[in-house]
Amino acid sequence: MNVETTDVLIVGGGPCGLMLANELGRRGVAAILVDQKPSTAFNPQANATQARTMEHFRRLGFVEEIRARGLPGDHPTDVAYFTRFATHELARHEMPSSDEAARAVRLGGRSYSSAEPAHRVSQKFVEAVMRRHADALPGISIRYGHRLVGFRETATGIEAEVEAVGGGTTSRIAALYMVGADGPHSFVRRELGFVYEGEGAAERDFMGGSMLALYLRVPSFYEACPHRPAWQYWAFNNQRRAVMGAVDGKGEFAFHTQLRPGETAEGMTDADAVALFTQCMGRDVPVEVLSRDAWIAGRMLVADRYRKGRVFLGGDAVHLFTPTGGMGYNTAIEDAVNLGWKLAAVIRGTAPAALLDSYESERRPIGLRNTGFARRFAESIGLYRPSPAIEEDGPAGEAARRRAGAYLLGHARAEFDIPGFTLGARYDGSPIIAAEASPLPPDAPTAYAPSGRPGGRAPHVWLDETRSLYDGFGFDWTLLRLGSNPPAGDDFVAAARRIGLSLTVVDCHDPEAHDLYETDLALIRPDQIVAWRRWGRPTASAEEILARALGHAVADRRAA
Fold first, then answer.
1. Which of 174, 266, 508, 537 is the most buried (most CB within 10 A)?
2. How far apart are CA 60 and CA 409, in angstroms?
3. What is d(CA 533, CA 167) in angstroms, rounded to the nearest whole number?
């Protein structure tokens, strides 16, 4: 049997695997991606691409393609709550359309904003764009319809066996490293013996138990629903609760309802499934079921390990969310971004293998943080029970709807206005981040405080209405010179040249940027995280600072 060789074998072609392929291919690292599905996702799945993920798509050059998909630019992205979609509206959290958000992020608070606003786009559309760009990269081979059936680690890499789904050839692939991004039932995780830790499936009135997911086409929905269009629709009544997301703004929806005692997804017909939707709609309308699936809500799970030897895990293979807050897929993207530049640096020889130790130490705490935030949102919405009178006519029903509306609006503001959740994750304590005695910024979902303290996302400013500070950053490392009279940074340039590191020097005289970073010199990692800044009286040389950021200090501790 012939053995095919590559740098990295990626198992799983969802958001994490496809993002990793893009990150590696852009850095000249060869990778083969295998996934047993026939192609990218058909079902809508996640439908909220958060601002931080959109920033990464901007960095990779295809953010406008993503923004052109999903909801039309002028479609409202409100979150609305109803007794039933065609009856009483209880509350509405108004949010800007994609076009409005793009204008606001450029014209609003320059330091608070991100380089890109969030976008309401289904994962199925995002995966298709990511695949197309990965396919176009030299050295990247995307192979859907193939599954991993075995692997072993050797002294120099990974030997894996891959077979075509449905029979056919079995091939061998030799890779330096392997990444399991193969979802919640990860074959790679199970073979490594890693286990999920956390809350398996909490019981709640909603978002806690067996869920039925329907991908529906409802052509007359907007005519039948007497309310202003929204992005997300919630149904609250004593018969059934559900949440539904608009997929294309024209009549396709992703509908999720929790199954009641005695209801099972197995054996349910399309007519049975449509009846559940009709209960939430409140009137009969023509419905086409495009696909169905079942899943379990209430899970907040993080794997006990993210890595063993030359094998790494990312995405749902290491963290499972209840989708409140919309952070599962977005956390998976960040896993790939973090691991991608580190694998490339080691494979290209600009960093020691010890750099890879920082992947688990940085990303696992974020998995715990993000699943914890999602749990709070799930409890807030899932444990709330409206009054039995919520659908009644008369004063009692009106009062019940007012009370429910006030609660739900408060919940929506907490779940859907979350810049801290989206932008505030930090890698404090990482062995490759320069330690500082400066105060830590707060970590709360609804508040984001930009900070130049090493370990967090680089503070962002708009230099004008179209040009982001991030646009000047290098694809790898960036030395940011801030203020009117910053240090030359020649020592960093020379040190980077000696070790073969790609370092882009960016001058930014913007006074607001200088104020945000609270320094005149900062080192920015390839993932736009501040690795070091000039703070107090510097004691380390440029070479020592770069060595730490590349994991040499970790390697030295290992050797000792």
1. 508
2. 36
3. 55
What 166-173 contacts at long range (C-beta under 8 Å, 24+ apart), as own/partner pairs, is 170/1, 171/1, 171/2, 171/4, 172/1, 172/2, 172/3, 172/4, 173/3, 173/4, 173/5, 173/6, 173/9, 173/32
Q: Indicate the DSSP class of residue 391.
A: T
Structure-token pair, residue 446: 């609804």
| Short-list 156, 162, 126, 144, CA closest to 48 | 126
Q: Which two tokens stand for residue 456?
A: 């967090």
Residue 343 is given by DSSP the state H
Q: What's the token pair of residue 417?
A: 């206005």
Tokens found for residue 431 = 């062995």
What does the angle CA 232 – CA 233 – CA 238 come to, to the nearest 5 degrees?
Answer: 150
Q: Strand, coil or helix: what is 402? A: helix
Instruction: From residue 89, give the alpha-carbon distance in Å to each of 80, 83, 84, 227, 402.
Output: 7, 7, 8, 8, 10
**How buried is residue 128: exposed, middle or buried, by Cβ count under 10 Å (0-12/13-18/19+)?**
middle
What the block records as the tokens of 124 is 């199925």
pLDDT one-digit tens code per residue, 258-289: 998 888 888 899 999 999 999 999 999 999 99
E strands, 181-334, where?
Answer: 196-199, 209-217, 232-235, 242-246, 252-258, 288-297, 300-303, 307-308, 311-313, 319-320
User: If you search the block for the tokens 């105060």, which residue do you land on?
Assistant: 439
Structure tokens at 420: 């801290």
CA dihedral sign, ordered 323, 329, 331, 335 = positive
CB 550 within 8 A of CB 352: yes
Within 10 A of 56 (CB to CB), how many other CB atoms are there?
22
Rounded distance, CA 120 to CA 231, Å?
8
pLDDT at 380: 87
d(CA 450, CA 452): 7
CB 208 within 8 A of CB 381: no
Residue 172's Cβ-count burial label (10 Å; 0-12, 13-18, 19+) is middle
Which residues of the chain have a pLDDT value below 50?
A: 110-112
The Cα 282–Cα 372 span in angstroms is 34
Closest C-alpha among 300, 327, 32 to residue 181: 32
Structure tokens at 231: 């992005």
Name the 3-class secondary structure at 87.
Answer: coil
Looking at residue 468, what DSSP letter applies?
A: B
